[in-house]
Amino acid sequence: MTWITLILCSGVFFSLNHILRKRILENADVTDMMILTGSFGFFCLLPFIKEVNFRISSVNMILILINAVFAFTGSYLLNIAYKHCEISTVSPLLNFNPLLVILLSHFQLGEALNGQQFSGVMLILLGGYIITLKEIKNFFNPFTALPAKYFLIVLATLVLWSFCPVINRVVLFEIDAMTHLFFFAMFIFIIQLILLITTNRYKRVALLAKNQWSLIIIAGAFWIISDFLHLKALAVPTAVVSLAIPVKRLSNLLTVVLGGTVFKEKSLVPKSMACIFMIAGLYIIGIN
Q1: What is the C-alpha to C-alpha distance for residues 204 and 21, in angstroms, rounded to an integer?
Q2: Is residue 118 exposed (0-12), middle (13-18) or buried (19+ Cβ within 10 Å)?
Q3: Digit-coded pLDDT (tens) for 133-157
Q4: Residue 63 near residue 170, CB atoms below 8 Å
Q5: How many CB atoms lie within 10 A of CB 112?
Q6: How far is CA 96 from CA 40, 129, 178, in A?
Q7: Any idea of the CA torsion for 68, 70, 72, 74, to the nearest 10 degrees?
Q8: What secondary structure letter does DSSP report for 139?
Q9: What are the DSSP calls for 237-267, one per residue?
Q10: pLDDT tens-digit readout, 164-188
């Protein structure tokens, strides 16, 4: 399926983006990092402005704005967790996001998974569940993997992000992916500009840009590429939101293995082996 290939590629850049953000956050504040990466991501789109259709309805504009607020707030909370916790423990928790997306897609888009598709989704979620464990023997006690404070932060991210793909699908019925992405990134840029001005972070942001400009540029570009591929996938008429989000979560395979290696984190072997379940789930979804 074309949309599955697109969403998998989106997941790769999604994972690389988060790994780079974790690296930047080792010596930076969450807000400063997000201002710079988000701003550069928007600037990346300016050369493609001729591809943007500015004649979109006010309803779609409002939906994109709501989507931007939800996405930015969720990313902000997630980056707080990334800054204080292991990336190979935080990131796999995102596998539980599809459960909320499946419910919303059913009620808002009328999507319904068959037994085979749901089995594939559950295998992907099972892999993510195992990855959160510190030890396999604690199979029924995964919530000890993170301090309660950061678990709640990640949970809030999942709730906010569950609305985003549903809103994306609705908007993409009427506008193309590039137009959607341009206005989405523009609203993110405006939010970050307001933060920059109201919190008077000019010197801190300038210093971070000077010290880590290369990582910031790459992270911003990866964010835009990931989101563009994501929207292109959802724009495919045969795409199923309830399946697209679980498939994208396979990016955790790369995040856990590569991110854990970069940051020398613990328990990587059982976490990596758990991704086998996720790959099996993708196979079941794919053959369907």
Answers
A1: 17
A2: middle
A3: 656 665 655 566 678 788 889 889 9
A4: yes
A5: 12
A6: 30, 8, 28
A7: -160
A8: T
A9: TT--HHHHHHHHTTHHHHIIIIIHHHTT-S-
A10: 989 999 999 999 999 999 999 999 9
